[in-house]
Fold:
Amino acid sequence: MITDALVFLQSWYASCCDDDWEHGYGVIIETLDNPGWRLEVDLVNTPLAGALLDRIVVERTEDDWVHAWSNGIHFGGACGPLNLGELLEAFRDFVGNAVSPPG
Structure:
């Protein structure tokens, strides 16, 4: 599951790179100190620009949790230390289900 979601993220990122977008936008994956992971994906100047996602909150235990959302500018997420694959899957689901507002 992690591998497939990571391959998807890499492919999505590569599809956005047009010798311009990647100079001002991109993807950030970093650690949190609680512990956990944070994901931020820029949606500006992609087919997902403007696509919204109400906050998804999954709280299983103190270390087993996932939050994901989109404000139309960024897809954001945070998760527990062993939930990065699940967060990347949430991004893949968002891409598959996203509807951008009419331009």
